[in-house]
Design brief:
Length: 277
């Protein structure tokens, strides 16, 4: 009881499933994963969509921005996540410079992600990526958009503040959402924009919006898993709800292990292979 029909029947989530969820009013639950075990747990819980985010550069590699993330790194994460997923839709962030250098390179790189197990890709930006997205969709590659705060453009923005507050930027974002829809994208992530603007965009297009710091009125929500489980202690924005403090639980376990090793209480007799005599 209480589970969506797709989850209750344990069916594979597809791009068409995600699009249909907007029409039916069922909200889309999304989280990130970068490795097999995390992906397997998320999939087992019935998550609708797993994003292999280039946020891996921050929470896995410790980069200050997502800009250093490479194709090779993201291909590795794609293969690892794919091995843990049966039902969720798996989407991959295309890293910086994997699609900005021309349509041919963009399509080829997107194809490499699909060959590695992704079921669609995500591009940051508005009208400037519309032609690329349209070409990809034409070749059978599902594309998700990303408007608002786009981390790959941090050097242009200069900060991670809320986007879309000014009327000119608001109007451009509304137009960009329509352009991305017309290019054939199946959904759009809206990051760190005013709730009212996210609501306006969501109501103006037929494809789903998935919010992160965009308020309640999107068609779904996404967070970085490492943030919402309290593993990333250095990142505490307003929009992240922390459901557990995994970092503290890990410290308790590690400290307990160190103590037990030091005082010879680990391993015990039951944890050792004894002689048969």
């Amino acid at each position: 009881m209480g589970l969506s029909s797709s989850k209750a029947e344990n069916k594979k989530i597809t791009v068409e499933t995600i699009k249909a969820m907007k029409k039916s009013g069922e909200l889309i639950a999304s989280l990130t994963a970068y490795d097999y075990l995390m992906a397997k747990i998320l999939d087992g819980c019935g998550i609708d969509l797993i994003l292999i985010g280039d946020s891996a550069g921050n929470v896995i590699a410790g980069y200050d921005t997502t800009l250093p993330v490479t194709m090779e790194e993201m291909l590795y994460h794609t293969r690892a996540v794919r091995n843990g997923v049966t039902n969720a839709l798996v989407i991959i962030d295309m890293p910086f410079l994997s699609y900005q250098c021309g349509v041919n390179d963009a399509v080829r790189n997107a194809g490499l992600f699909l060959k590695s197990g992704a079921e669609g890709i995500k591009l940051e930006g508005g009208r400037q990526v519309a032609d690329i997205a349209e070409r990809m969709v034409g070749f059978g590659i599902p594309v998700m958009g990303h408007l608002g705060l786009t981390p790959q453009s941090i050097n242009l923005f200069g900060d991670y503040k809320v986007r879309g507050k000014m009327n000119k930027e608001r109007k451009r974002m509304l137009k960009d959402a329509k352009i991305l829809e017309e290019a054939g994208m199946f959904s759009i992530v809206l990051e760190k924009i005013p709730e009212a603007l996210a609501k306006e965009i969501t109501e103006s297009i037929s494809i789903p919006t998935i919010g992160i710091g965009a308020g309640l009125y999107c068609d779904g929500q996404i967070l970085v898993t490492h943030d919402m489980i309290g593993l990333n202690e250095d990142f505490n924005p307003k929009f992240v709800r922390k459901y557990v403090n995994v970092a503290e639980e890990m410290r308790k376990a590690f400290n307990g292990y160190i103590k037990d090793v030091k005082n010879s209480s680990f391993p015990s007799k039951d944890e050792s292979y004894l002689s048969s005599r």
